[in-house]
Write a structure and sequence with these properties.
heterodimer; A: alpha/beta; Rossmann fold; six-stranded mixed beta sheet; four-stranded antiparallel beta sheet; 10 helices; globular; B: mainly alpha; MetI-like fold; binds adenosine-5'-triphosphate; binds magnesium ion; ABC_transporter-like_ATP-bd (chain A); AAA+_ATPase (chain A); phosphate transmembrane transporter activity (chain A)
Chain lengths: 250, 281
């Protein structure tokens, strides 16, 4: 089943075309990786999936992005509701300067859940789901921005898990972390994939090879090749993909 | 050669910095030296709790003026803070950067208008308005609060805008990506992150309101009596000093310095409270 399907997507920053006629499908409950050299449009594509690009002035977009068979760029779509279902984890961990507890319940409060007992229950469940509970259960009142980066990034995932989205978009979620923390986050991704559809942008080809099931290779705003990760990394159809994978450029 | 030059520059900068602090100390010591003898003479408690101010008969009680100062300052904050904050939020979150770049310096310009001009406008426009519509003499706590509330706007607006704009973009993106609306993002994340800067703007505004003299003299009525309502006239500690210093001598003169001492203490206390409020979380 395709959770998100992108059709003929063109995207412009002013006059600069950052995405060229992209067509790609993200399947339910697997991890899809987007790889490619810097500036090829990976982040741009990812941010089209939950309409975060709407926040940038002067952008133009054409084509279709269907989330569960509904075009999210059609007129009657509620962006707030969309983002509740398609959450995002950023490159630099960006927990709010609030307590750990308040970070996790943020999304719930935003979406109108206020009963104390439910909040506590969900905080415990979300922190457990992201492997933070044991470390955090006595520190729920500490300020999130003072935690180690890895815990901050986990917390950012926990606050998404709390609102139970269907898709989690991750833009280079490990690039600010050391290798050990990266390994832990990757483990977490495997865990999360059981319940969520995950799209990850990464610079790190080993990471893409390790964690993803499907993989898309992008170059200069175009999707060059898309397929299962094993195929992309062992016998790609396109010569450019081959060159990138073997490290001849990028 | 270069080394001696560096040393000379460093030493002279140090001296200049020291002299600035030294002058501050000198002023404080001078005020205390001139003011405290009278406080001891009439007793501190009597001085601050009596409201009988008859300097020529040797009665010095400034209670009504302490009240006047607190009332007018509180009123100025009640008017200035919500107005200033909403303005800062609107300008930094809802107005395009280009327009902000013009509006912010304009607002900062308002801080440069001499206080006597604010007082004058208050006297000819605001005071009659209050007298005709709300009753009382017009010259009143309300008039003082409104004028001061306007005068502290530039301080509050400009410093709050800086604080709000210093909030990292990533916080906003994080919030919006969770499906929060713009307004939820502002009051649940941005204002909390900008909190210490916003409180600083309020403290500075409060300092300006307590210290302002000229505008208050012109609109607040200056009567030495305990104010019963916001339509009553009142005298503040600063205006008391300014109004009487010109002809005061002997004990009277000392009593005015003593007024300064009390003002000094009040400002200290309010600053400590405000700082504590920021530190707490
Ligand atoms: N806000 C913007 N305004 C104008 N151009 C932009 C903007 N953001 C990105 N671009 C341009 O769009 C192109 C694609 O950017 P994007 O951030 O999607 O690349 P990326 O593949 O994520 O790169 P990286 O690996 O460096 O993150 C780049 O050429 C970039 O310069
Ligand atoms: Mg990127």
């Amino acid at each position: 089943m395709n959770t998100i399907e992108v059709k003929n997507l063109n995207f412009y920053y002013g006059n600069f075309q950052a995405l060229k006629d992209i067509g790609i499908a993200f399947q339910e409950k697997i991890i899809t990786a987007l790889i490619g050299p810097s500036g090829c449009g990976k982040s741009t594509l990812l941010r089209c999936l939950n309409r975060m690009n709407d926040l940038i002035e002067g952008v133009k977009i054409s084509g279709e992005v269907d989330f569960k068979d509904k075009n999210i760029y059609s007129k009657n779509i509620d962006v707030v509701e969309l983002r509740r279902h398609v959450g995002m984890v950023f490159q630099r961990p960006n927990p709010f300067p609030l307590s750990v507890f308040d970070n996790v319940v943020y999304g719930l409060k935003v979406h109108g859940v206020t009963q104390a007992f439910r909040l506590e229950e969900i905080v415990e469940r979300s922190l457990k789901a992201t492997g933070l509970w044991d470390e955090m259960k006595d520190k729920l009142n500490s300020i999130a921005t003072e935690l180690p980066l890895e815990q901050q990034q986990r917390l950012c995932m926990a606050r998404l898990v709390a609102i139970e989205p269907e898709v989690i978009l991750m833009d280079e979620p490990c690039s600010a972390l050391d290798p050990i923390a990266t390994a832990k986050i990757e483990e977490l991704m495997f865990e999360l994939k059981k319940k969520y559809t995950i799209v990850i942008v990464t610079h790190n080809m080993q990471q893409a090879a390790r964690v993803s099931d499907c993989c898309g290779f992008m170059l200069l705003g175009e999707l060059i090749e898309f397929g299962t990760t094993s195929k992309i990394f062992t016998s790609p159809d396109n010569q450019k993909t081959q060159d990138y994978i073997t490290g001849r450029f990028g | 050669m270069k080394n001696t030059k560096e040393v000379v520059i460093e030493k002279s900068l140090f001296l200049i910095a020291l002299s600035a602090i030294f002058m501050l100390f000198l002023i404080a010591i001078f005020i205390f030296k001139e003011g405290t003898p009278l406080i001891f003479k009439v007793g501190f408690k009597n001085f601050v709790t009596s409201s009988k101010w008859f300097p020529l008969e040797g009665q010095f009680g400034i209670f009504s003026m302490i009240l006047g100062t607190l009332w007018i300052t509180a009123g100025a904050l009640i008017i200035g803070v919500p107005l200033g904050l909403s303005c800062a939020i609107f300008l930094s979150e809802f107005v395009p950067r280009r327009i902000m770049a013009i509006l912010k310096p304009t607002i900062e310009l308002l801080a440069g208008i001499p206080s006597v001009v604010y007082g004058f406008i208050g006297m000819v426009v605001l005071v009659p308005l209050i007298r005709e519509n709300l009753g009382g003499p017009g010259l009143s706590i309300l008039a003082g609060s409104i004028i001061l509330g306007i005068m502290i706007l530039p301080t509050i607006i400009s410093i709050s805008i800086d604080a709000i704009q210093a909030v990292p973009r990533s916080y906003r993106e994080g919030s919006l990506a969770m499906g929060a609306t713009k307004w939820q993002t502002i009051h649940m994340v941005v204002l909390k992150a900008a909190r210490s800067g916003i409180v600083a703007s309020i403290i500075l505004g409060m300092g300006r309101a307590i210290g302002e003299t000229m505008a208050v003299i012109m609109v607040a009525g200056n009567a030495v009596k305990i104010p019963r309502s916001i339509l009553d006239p009142a005298r503040t500690l600063t205006t008391n000093i300014a109004l009487e210093m010109g002809f005061a001598a002997g004990d009277h003169r000392q009593a005015l310095f003593a007024t300064g001492v009390v003002l000094f203490i009040i400002i200290m206390i309010l600053n400590i409270i405000a700082n504590y409020a920021v530190r707490k979380r």
